[in-house]
Structure formats: structure tokens, C-alpha cells
Write a structure and sequence with these properties.
Blueprint lengths: L31 H17 L6 E6 L2 E7 L2 H4 L6 H13 L8 E6 L3 H9 L4 E6 L24 E4 L3 H18 L1
Parallel strand pairs: 3-4, 4-5
Antiparallel strand pairs: 1-2, 1-3
Length: 180
């Protein structure tokens, strides 16, 4: 696991009770479902911090080198998306901004900012659970990865643990609409 950073410190904000339990996948099979389960757990941590429940994990060589969840509201930083925070942790962990052999696992399709940052970091592969037809930029609303002039292209896998991650997101937003 990466070294703790100030963004990893516990927050004083308590979110609405999360009705979802964390999952504890077997360490014996470190496949896409395993790493997405860890990203899902990050999403639960986001909910508990009263953040949109999106989580991200970056894997390199079968090991987690970064894990983060959204902290936009708690930090007041519009760039504090799970993917951006995880990319920063991963770069620090390996001592290089080029994440050529890394895989990003994220519970929802990356937005324009996160998709762009993932391309710029030269991530090898992105695995996401839930497509986003409104703001997703790796096949949802648009596909930055398909631009022919881009000098790096990602390998994309969609739909890993889709139902679980979708249920988490939908329940959170249903609760938020009731509170409003």
C-alpha cells in the first residue's frame, strides 16, 4: 500500500450512514474483480465521508500502489476526484509520472479531466464498472482514447462489478435527493 499522505488523513465530516458493507475478496486471485472490489471499498469510504461514492485503485505488477476516493467536497478542491488522487499517489510511489504498466480500476467511467489525466500519465489500462453517458470520456459521452491524434492509447475494460457499483451510486443519490 502507498505511504499515507495528507489527503489520506481521516476526515471529520461524517456522511449519511452507508447501508453497503465493504467486501473482502480473496487475495489468492488478483484479477479485475479483485482490484475493482478494492475500488468499491474506496467508494464506500467516500460515502462515509459524505462524498460521491467513487473509488479508484491503481495496480502495478499485481500490487496496489495507490487507492483513493472522491474528496472534492471535503477538500474544496474541484480536482480531488478519486482518479486524480490515485494518479498522484501512484506517481509518487514509483517515482515517475509515467505509469506505463499500471492499471487504473475505478467504479465509474472517468470524466473529461480524469480521462485526460489518465492518458497524460500513460496508464496502460483502465477498468471501470459503470458507464457514464453524460460525462464519461472513455466511451460514454465521448471517447478521448479514440482520438487519432492522441499519442497514447489506453486498453479499456468496461463493466467489472457493474451491478454492485451502480447500486452504490444509485442509493447514494436517492438518499441525497430525499435530503434536499
Amino acid at each position: 500500500m502507498p505511504e499515507a499522505t495528507p489527503m489520506d488523513e481521516p476526515l471529520t465530516r461524517n456522511g449519511p450512514p452507508c447501508p453497503f458493507e465493504k467486501v473482502f475478496p480473496s487475495q489468492l486471485v488478483r484479477d479485475d474483480a479483485f482490484f475493482m472490489a478494492l475500488a468499491y471499498n474506496q467508494g464506500i469510504d467516500a460515502w462515509r465521508s459524505d462524498e460521491v461514492p467513487i473509488g479508484a485503485v491503481i495496480e502495478l505488477g499485481g500490487e496496489v500502489i495507490a487507492a483513493a476516493h472522491n474528496r472534492r467536497d471535503s477538500s474544496g478542491d474541484p480536482t480531488a476526484h478519486a482518479e486524480i488522487l490515485a494518479l498522484g499517489q501512484a506517481a509518487k510511489a514509483i517515482g515517475d509520472w509515467r505509469l506505463n504498466e499500471a492499471t487504473l480500476y475505478v467504479t465509474k467511467e472517468p470524466c473529461p479531466m480524469c480521462s485526460g489525466a489518465t492518458l497524460m500519465a500513460r496508464v496502460k489500462r483502465v477498468v471501470y464498472a459503470v458507464s457514464d453517458p453524460k460525462m464519461g470520456c472513455l466511451g460514454g459521452a465521448t471517447d478521448l482514447n479514440a482520438l487519432p491524434q492522441v499519442n497514447h492509447h489506453l486498453l479499456i475494460t468496461r463493466g467489472v462489478l457493474e451491478q454492485e457499483c451502480l447500486a452504490l451510486l444509485q442509493a447514494y443519490f436517492q438518499l441525497k435527493r430525499k435530503e434536499a
